[in-house]
Design a protein that fits this description.
3-stranded antiparallel β-sheet; 8 helices; 2 domains; Serine Threonine Protein Phosphatase 5, Tetratricopeptide repeat; 15% strand; 4-stranded antiparallel β-sheet; alpha+beta
Length: 304
């Protein structure tokens, strides 16, 4: 099970990184306790970003950072150059903290916030001694005290593994990768960035769904498309497609329905949710998904 979760996490984070390869948004943010005073932050920067990245701003708060408005009330911990991808934060208490990494570019600060991508959704606190920690030392047969330096707190072994902040939680319902609360709070705004609109205006429908099928999953999906999606009643299509996907369907129908759900979120102007739907089917529809992901990210930073 651990191997399966690790593979799923690896796949999702790789997909996120690939999808944002041309955007000034870092990915794979991770906050790991290293000692009783420090937390180590790591992240990955996109390749060939447009506009060019000039540095990184590190933010910290005692609650999840979910909006540009919240970000504007915080003072950056530090500004790093564009070649630095780790930061060791020193803390004086054991409270849970949340982190966010924002790119500065040649066009200004790119204040886009994507939970678990460039901002942590789980709190991280410095390592503290407790009953769950045991220091592993070699066995002694002569009852003499073993000489040598005291073990580093970061090297203590735990009976229960530490949670890894920043990783996407894998649940039975793959439609809720971040959970409803995190998704609801995922408000983003590129307030200081001047982008160009790349709006998509036409619905996309796969050829399989242009003609009414005889029955099965394809037929129920066709009914949803006919009753709400093609009529541009996107609130209804979001609800119906979400219900449709809550039941196990064939892989082909699931992929198409997930893509239509992404389109519905897109045209409902919920671009962050649209991105996460398109990411789920990026392997099945690579070029098509990239087109809609790029447009969704553009629309996040361009005011209507």
């Amino acid at each position: 099970m651990k191997k399966i979760l690790a593979l799923l996490t690896f796949f999702m984070t790789c997909s996120l990184f690939f999808a944002q390869s041309s955007r000034p948004v870092v990915s794979e943010i991770n906050a790991i306790p290293k000692s009783n005073k420090t937390i180590k932050l790591t992240w990955k920067a996109p390749q060939n970003s447009t506009p060019e990245i000039t540095g990184f701003l590190i933010f910290r708060d005692i609650k999840p950072i979910t909006s540009s408005q919240q970000l504007s009330t915080l003072k950056p911990l530090i500004k790093l150059d564009s070649e630095t991808f780790t930061y060791m934060d020193t803390l004086s208490d054991s409270r849970e903290y949340y982190f966010c990494i924002i790119c500065t570019t040649t066009n200004g600060t790119y204040n886009v916030i994507l939970p678990s991508v460039n901002t942590t959704v789980n709190g991280a606190r410095v390592a503290t001694a407790n009953t769950d920690e045991k220091v592993i030392t070699p066995p002694s047969t002569n009852n003499k005290k073993i000489s040598g330096p005291e073990p580093d707190p970061s090297e203590k072994m735990r009976d229960i593994p530490l949670p890894t902040p920043g990783l996407i939680e894998v649940t039975k319902n793959k439609q809720n990768i971040l959970g409803p609360k995190a998704m609801e709070q995922a408000k983003t705004l590129g307030s200081k960035y001047t982008g160009t609109s790349n709006r998509i205006t036409k619905l996309f429908i796969f050829e399989n769904d242009l003609i009414c099928p005889e029955g099965g999953d394809d037929y129920y999906l066709f009914k949803i498309l006919k009753s709400s999606f093609v009529k541009k009643n996107f609130k209804a299509s979001i609800d119906e497609l979400t219900d449709f996907l809550s039941i196990h369907r064939s892989p082909e129908v699931t992929s198409r329905a997930t893509f239509y759900l992404g389109e519905s979120y897109y045209f409902a102007k919920e671009y962050e949710k649209a991105v996460f739907q398109f990411l789920q089917v990026q392997e099945q529809f690579p070029e098509l998904s990239k087109k809609w992901i790029d447009s969704s990210l553009d629309m996040i930073t361009v005011k209507d």
